[in-house]
Amino acid sequence: MKDRFAADDMMNMGIYFGLGPWRAFASQWLLWRGFYRPLGAAFYLPLHHWFGLNPVPFQIAIMLLLAFNAYLAFRLAEALGSSDLASGLAALAVSYHAGLSNLQYNIDMVYDVLCFTFFIGALLFYVRIRSQGRLLRRGEIAVFLGLYVCALNAKEMAFTFPLVLAAYEWFYHRPVSGHASPLAADLAAGRHAQLAKPLDRWWCPAVSGWLRGPGPVILAAVALDGIDLYGKTVGRNSLLANAAYRPVFSFARLMEFQQASLNDLLGYFGRPSTPGVLAIWILITYLAWRRDRPVLRFCWAYMLITPLPIEFLSGRTQGTLYIPLAGWAVFASVVFLDLVEAAARFLAAEPLLRNLGRAGVCGLLIAGGVLLWAQRMDYIKTKVVEPAAAQQGIQTWDVIQQLRAAQPHVRPQSRVIFLNDPFTDWDMTFIAQLWFHDRTVHVYNQRLQHLSPADVSRMDYIFDFQDGKLLQLK
Questions:
Q1: Is the CB of residue 326 less than 8 Å from the CB of residue 116?
Q2: Helices 205-212 & 193-202, crossing angle to 10 degrees?
Q3: Strand 415-419 vs strand 442-445: parallel, antiparallel, or unpaired?
Q4: Which 3 state secondary structure label does DSSP give 418?
Q5: Which residues have C-beta within 8 Å of that of residue 3, sequence separation ≥ 6?
Q6: Structure pTM?
Q7: Distance (Å, whole) CA 30 – CA 122
């Protein structure tokens, strides 16, 4: 696959370049201002500073993040109670899933990659502490909320995080049979005893226990959601101003998303019909609830909750399913090993396989399953990923190559105009700003801005495209 920038990379990088490093840093903390996915600046700006418009380092950085995310998925699966083998299989699925094809070659999917890093990182941080039977301490709460702010700054997919936390608490730490959990009992008997009595007087014990326990941390995450949502809806760069980000709450849109997402997640075996979608979710629900296994029930809730920010938007598939993929991978790995163990118990009694023993049969079945998965991923890569990657960013790359060959230089504070550029939007403006790497240079686009002949003649530098070739006229 050729390394080229994606269609939106020049816009993304150009927006952050225009902010400058200090404003980009400040935007990480001003959630209510509605900056456009500010964590992207931490990815784009350093790489642009060091490597210019060379896409290879950007792609390498994406691949390193994907590898780290696979490690996070492994640790999260372990923390949720999966075996080492199931956790390893889940990490394998997360490390490369060709059904999420544009995740592998579109640099502008970095928002989903970064959101996964901090969403799963924050969840892992929380789960590992709570699995020790204690609440987060003050310093840990600060780290946890910092991770969550980074997830929110990466992409709107992070909005579901408080619901995911609530699902985790319900399936792993809820009181059983009307009795308080050991943690709640410890809290009531310890330093929260004085608070317990007035709370229990006004609230039912379950609510008061929740408020003395994990409730404040989850409510803090909800508060961050509210602040960020305010910025995203009424801030200076409201996403809802863009029709592509306006949800349509209808059954038809829900089914459209489910059909497309299941096709991608399940390996491109075809878009299921509406009855097929319902049948798949009935099967998943049965597998999750047939036995009291928190890991499967939590993953079931996770799989339902995490797509909510994109479920009623149009065309959100492939790499946008990266965060939901973590739940699917853990769920599928646990269920797959359950099926392997059940099959091995039966097959190990067969004369042809008796010498292998149950462990040997298990190993054979697991190896076969992994091989089939790898073959399917290779098929999708050959038929879908590589052809799509070959068409990626051709025009952008051609213009960058022409700039590299011409090596045009402009003075600081100068005014530059491009005539008849080959794009349909502001791509040329962003490419030029990034190429000149000087925020004092003012770049104009005649195709979109329609300056008068007199204004054009007063420009310090004039560039034109004739028959697709870059020429410097002044």
A1: yes
A2: 140
A3: parallel
A4: strand
A5: 55, 56, 58, 59
A6: 0.88
A7: 20
Does residue 43 contact residue 114 with C-beta atoms inside 8 Å? Answer: yes
The answer to which of 95-99, 154-158, 247-251, 353-357 has the lowest mean pLDDT is 353-357
Nearest Cα to Cα of residue 362 among 387, 386, 331, 336:
336
Q: Residue 106's CB: how many other CB atoms inside 10 A?
A: 24
CA distance 165 to 216: 12
Q: Distance between CA atoms of 182 and 170, rounded to whole angstroms?
A: 14
Locus of tokens 């200090």: 22
Which positions ≥6 away from 273 have C-beta within 8 Å? 259
Give the CA-trace dihedral at 334, 337, 343, 344, to 10 degrees: -150
Beta-bridge mates of residue 179 = 176
Tokens of 224: 């961050």
pLDDT tens-digit profile of 399-439?
A: 999 999 889 988 999 999 999 888 888 899 999 999 999 89
Q: For the chain, give percent helix, strand, coil, nearest 5.
A: 70, 5, 25
What's the one-letter identity of residue 160? T
- Sole residue written with tokens 């409201």: 238
- Phi-psi category of 442—alpha, beta or left, where left has phi over 0 and alpha has psi -120 to 50? beta
Q: ∠ at Cα 393 (391, 397), nearest 5°? A: 120
Q: How far apart are CA 135 and CA 41, in angstroms?
A: 33
Contact 97, 325 (CB under 8 A): yes
Helix (H, G, I), strand (E, B) or coil at 217: helix
pLDDT confidence tier of residue 278, bands split at 50, 70 and 90: very high
For 470, the enclosing helix (H) or strand (E) is: strand 469-472
